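Hello Y.,

Per our agreement to keep a running log of every chain we model this quarter, I'm adding this entry. I've kept the format consistent with earlier entries: sequence first, then predicted structure.
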Amino acid sequence: MSEVRNGNLGPYALAGKVAAITGGSSGIGAASARRLAEQGATIAIGYNAGRDRAQKLAAELPGSAHLPIHMPVTDSARIRAAVAEVEAKLGRCDVLVNSAGTTRAVPHADLDAMDDETFDRILVTNVRGPFSTIRAFAPLLRKSGDGVIVNISSLTALNGLGSSIAYCASKAALDTMAMSLARVLGPEIRVIGVSPAGVDTDFVPGRSRDAVLRQASSAPLRTVTQPDDVALAVVAAVTHLRLTTGSILLVDGGKRLT
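Predicted structure for the entry above:
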């Protein structure tokens, strides 16, 4: 029988830890960077096109040595290079937040409007991207001995309602992949999904704030989810859900009930 730890682990202290965040220059990623840094973590702010935003965020975060780093999740070679840079400059990685993603608003009933190029781009970014990032960071996270991966998923994975059929499919794939990875990466690494609904950002091109308000108004809590609400769930998953892995944490105001 392999060695078994005792429980009563207590909160996961972030002081002295390093957290890498894909899509870290804006939205949920940036909010997560702020909250994790507030708890004492040094942040590797992964960005694709948002270099200026990432640099500005790094300067604003509490603490020091925060690292803006080019980390396009569709480029596996560049991800590996980013991991090497994190190790060389920060020495470790304890937390990985997969926040990068993409979508396009396509009516579900208009099957012909979902062209192959868009479908492939969404799946490569939202599914292969997190997998490639996890694969590259896994050795560093294992070396930590108590690593955490948080995937930013979506309620669309459960209800099939969202900006496009391809987006819904990509988030369902991400959640299933998290279960598979949780089995093989334990006990050194936990894998947790955080799934919001209708976050008030410009992530979905062309979506109005009125659409977000309408969605929130039909949920039991009748509250518009902001990026910081999701970031708080990310921090909770990292610091307090010490015996949770392969599970999905909903941050949806109860929208799944409607």
